């Protein structure tokens, strides 16, 4: 049975998708069969892996119950990495799921049959605490919370932790925090250093040792439809995501 990780933070632009794509690629490259599930209607993870966001069937059809997850999974250019793609139609799912009773477990139930094929399943969440993110937290065993090392880093984290606690109590007792991940860290600035200290003090033992640097290769890679380890395997960004993959696998 694969372990399911949700990559979640209701803030946009903190590095969720970048982490989902690059971490998934590094784990797959290390030899673990991996599935990335894109549940953001923006479909950035889908496009970032070189798959068209008009691909059908998509995770939207799976959440509606029209198609089984196995039939919607596609292969990517990275050996061992499969994708359950998102489609812009997924925006409608937010409304549909909010209306339907008992819809919080749709994703969990849909992923049940694919879980056996993969060692790791990563869920790239949208920037909200809406029904899609709740579905991801109900399906997940662990959560990774990317935190951008900038002035407002801690803002919003309390709300996220409250939501995690609520999901743990009411819907998914096995949910655990795998770690908070500092992203887009600019080693040259005092601010990044201070924010790192603050987050580590606030959440001792909860922050990954690995820090993802701000790196232009990371931001270029999606326009080529590849993860940074294929765009520039020797870049600081690629090295950092390899380190993170090792740390995540070691933490178990
Ligand atoms: P989210 O999914 O949380 O909204 P993204 O992963 O899409 O955030 O990242 C937001 C933007 O920041 C994207 O343009 C991405 O390319 C860029 N970015 C993310 N991580 C890095 C990094 N480590 N270095 C440079 N740019 C980054
Ligand atoms: Mg995103």
UniProtKB/TrEMBL annotation:
| Domain AAA, chain residue ranges per copy | 3-177
SUPFAM superfamilies in alphabetical order: P-loop containing nucleoside triphosphate hydrolases (SSF52540)
Family indicated by similarity? Belongs to the ParA family.
Function description: May play a role in septum formation.
Which PANTHER family would you find in this protein's record? Answer: P-LOOP CONTAINING NUCLEOSIDE TRIPHOSPHATE HYDROLASE (PTHR13696), PARA FAMILY PROTEIN CT_582 (PTHR13696:SF52)
Q: What is this protein called?
A: Chromosome (Plasmid) partitioning protein ParA
List the source organism. Patulibacter medicamentivorans
């Amino acid at each position: 049975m694969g372990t399911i990780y949700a990559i979640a933070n209701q803030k946009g632009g903190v590095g969720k998708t970048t982490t989902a794509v690059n971490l998934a690629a590094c784990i797959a490259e290390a030899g673990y069969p991996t599935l990335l599930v894109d549940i953001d209607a923006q479909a950035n993870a889908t496009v970032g892996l070189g798959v068209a966001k008009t691909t059908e069937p998509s995770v939207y059809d799976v959440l509606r119950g029209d198609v089984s997850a196995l039939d919607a999974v596609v292969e990517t250019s990275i050996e061992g990495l499969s994708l359950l793609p998102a489609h812009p139609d997924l925006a409608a799912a937010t409304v549909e799921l909010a209306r339907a009773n008992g819809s919080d477990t749709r994703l969990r139930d849909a992923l049940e049959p694919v879980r056996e094929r993969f060692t790791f399943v990563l869920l790239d969440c949208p920037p909200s605490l809406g029904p899609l993110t709740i579905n991801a937290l109900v399906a997940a065993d662990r959560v990774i919370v990317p935190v951008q090392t900038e002035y407002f880093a801690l803002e919003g984290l309390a709300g996220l932790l409250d939501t995690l606690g609520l999901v743990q109590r009411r819907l998914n007792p096995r949910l655990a925090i795998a770690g908070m991940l500092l992203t887009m860290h600019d080693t040259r600035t005092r601010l990044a250093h201070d924010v790192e200290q603050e987050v580590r003090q606030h959440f001792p033992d909860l922050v990954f040792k690995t820090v993802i640097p701000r790196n232009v290769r990371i931001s270029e890679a999606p326009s080529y439809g590849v993860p940074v380890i294929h765009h520039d395997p020797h870049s600081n960004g690629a090295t950092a995501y390899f380190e993170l993959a090792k740390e995540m696998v070691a933490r178990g």
